[in-house]
Write a structure and sequence with these properties.
By secondary structure, this protein is mainly alpha-helical. The protein is 82% helix and 0% strand.
Length: 206
C-alpha cells in the first residue's frame, strides 16, 4: 500500500494504470462468477464453491485496494490487513484448496485407468472420481474453510481478543490437517488399487 500510495501521490499515469489493472481483474472475477451460475451441469461441485468464495474475496480485496490508494485515515492498518487476508486466504488459499479437491481425484482416476487398460478384462475399480474424495468430505473441507475465514477477518479488523486468536489458530490447524488427511487417504487408495491391478496383471501373464 505504501509503495502504491506513493505512486498515486506522484503520478496520475500510475494511478490510472493501477485502477485499470484492478478493474480488469475484477471484470474477470465477475465474469467467472457469471459463468459458474450459468453452467448447465447442476451436479454438486464443491470446487466451484471454493471458486465462488475466491472470486468474491478477490472483488472485496480489489475494492479495498482501490479505496486504500486514496485513504490515509486512522483505520489504514486494519484496511491493509483485511486486504491481505482476503487476497491470501479468501482468494489464493480458497483456489488452491478447491483445485486440490479436483486435481488429486482426477490424477488418481487417470493413473488407475491407464493401469486398468493393460488388462481390461477385469472390472475398473474406480467408476468415477468421487470415489477418491467423496462429496461429503469435500463439503466438510469447505465448511471448515468458510468458518475459519470470518474469524481471521475479525482479528485483523481489530477484534484481537485472546480467545478469538486461539479459536482462529485451532480452526486453521483443523482445516488444513483435515485437508492433509483427505489427500493422504486419496494417495492410500491409489496405492491400494495400483497394487491390486499390478497383481492382476502379473497373474494374467502367468
Amino acid at each position: 500500500f505504501q509503495m502504491f500510495s506513493h505512486l498515486v501521490a506522484n503520478s496520475i499515469l500510475a494511478t490510472v494504470q493501477l485502477l485499470c489493472i484492478t478493474l480488469t481483474a475484477s471484470v474477470y472475477a465477475i465474469y467467472t462468477l457469471y459463468l459458474i451460475q450459468k453452467r448447465k451441469r447442476k451436479a454438486v461441485d464443491v470446487t466451484l464453491w471454493f471458486w465462488n468464495c475466491a472470486m468474491l474475496s478477490f472483488l472485496m480485496a480489489a475494492t479495498l485496494f482501490i479505496g486504500g490508494l486514496f485513504y490515509q485515515g486512522y483505520y489504514r492498518v486494519q484496511l491493509e490487513l483485511i486486504l491481505a487476508v482476503m487476497g491470501l486466504v479468501g482468494f489464493a488459499m480458497a483456489l488452491i484448496t478447491g483445485m486440490l479437491l479436483k486435481i488429486v481425484p482426477f490424477l488418481v482416476w487417470l493413473n488407475i485407468q491407464q493401469k486398468w487398460i493393460k488388462h481390461p478384462s477385469t472390472k475398473m475399480p474406480l467408476s468415477n472420481m468421487q470415489q477418491v474424495i467423496p462429496i461429503r468430505v469435500a463439503k466438510r473441507q469447505f465448511f471448515l474453510f468458510i468458518t475459519m475465514l470470518p474469524t481471521i477477518l475479525l482479528i485483523v479488523a481489530g477484534f484481537n481478543n485472546y480467545w478469538l486468536i486461539k479459536i482462529a489458530g485451532v480452526q486453521l490447524i483443523i482445516t488444513y490437517s483435515y485437508l492433509l488427511y483427505t489427500l493422504f487417504n486419496a494417495n492410500k487408495l491409489y496405492q491400494q488399487l495400483s497394487t491390486m491391478l499390478d497383481k492382476q496383471l502379473e497373474a494374467g501373464k502367468g
